[in-house]
Amino acid sequence: MTKTQDQGVLEALLDSWNRNNTILLNLLRALPEDGLEARAMEGSPTIAVQFSHIHSTRLFFINQTAPAFAKDLAQLFRQDGENRLAERNLERIAVGLEASAKAVGDAVKIAVETGRDMKGTNVAYDHPVLLLQHLLWHEGYHVGQMMLGLKAMGQPMSEEQTEPAIWGVWRREEWDT
Ligand code: NI
C-alpha cells in the first residue's frame, strides 16, 4: 500500500475506535432509571462497575505501553475504606470515557505514525493497532453483559433503541421497497 492509503486505513481505524466510544455514551444516556445497578446475574458486576472498569482497563494498557498519554487521566473508581466504588454520575462517566478514548486513539496514532513500539515491561502489542482491537473486543464483551443485565432487570433495550444507539453507528443501510 502507498503511504496515502496507509494513512486512510489508520484514519478509518481511529474513526472506528471513536464510534465504539460513541456507542458507550449512547448506551449510558439510554439507560433506564436505576439502570446503572443492573447486573446479568447475582455476583456479576453492575453496569456502573462495568463502565468504570472499561475506563480503568484503557488506562491500565496505556499506562503499560504508552504511559505519557495516561498521565493526566484519573480513575472513575474511588476507594472508600475497603470498598472500591464505581462512578455513578452519568456526566462524570461520560467525561472519563471521552478522555480515555482520546488517550488511546492519540497513543495509537502517534505510535503508528512514528513507528514506535507499544511495548512495556509487562505488556507488549505486536502492532499498535492491536491495542485498539483488544479494547474493542473487551468493550463489546462488556456491552453484551450490560444488555443482559438490563434484560435480567426486566428492562431490556428494544431494537428501536439499539439500532440507533449501537448498530446504526457502524453503517448505513438503504433498501429498495
Ligand atoms: Ni473486563
Head-to-tail CA distance between termini: 39 Å
Helix content: 55-70%
With strands numbered from the N-terminus, the spatial order across the biggest sheet is 1-2
Compute the CA-based radius of gyration. 17 Å
**Ligands present:** nickel (II) ion
The biggest sheet, with number of strands, parallel, antiparallel or mixed sense and barrel status, is: 2 strands, antiparallel
Number of helices: 5
Segments where pLDDT lies below 50 for 5+ residues? none
Overview of the structural elements:
This protein is mainly alpha-helical and 177 residues long. It contains five helices and four strands; from the N terminus they run ααββαββαα. The strands form two sheets. The chain has a two-stranded antiparallel ribbon. A two-stranded antiparallel sheet has the order 3-4. Helix 1 (3-30) runs parallel beside helix 4, helix 2 packs parallel to helix 3 and helix 2 runs antiparallel to helix 4 (129-152). It is flat, with a radius of gyration of 17 Å. The N and C termini lie far apart (39 Å). The chain binds nickel (II) ion.
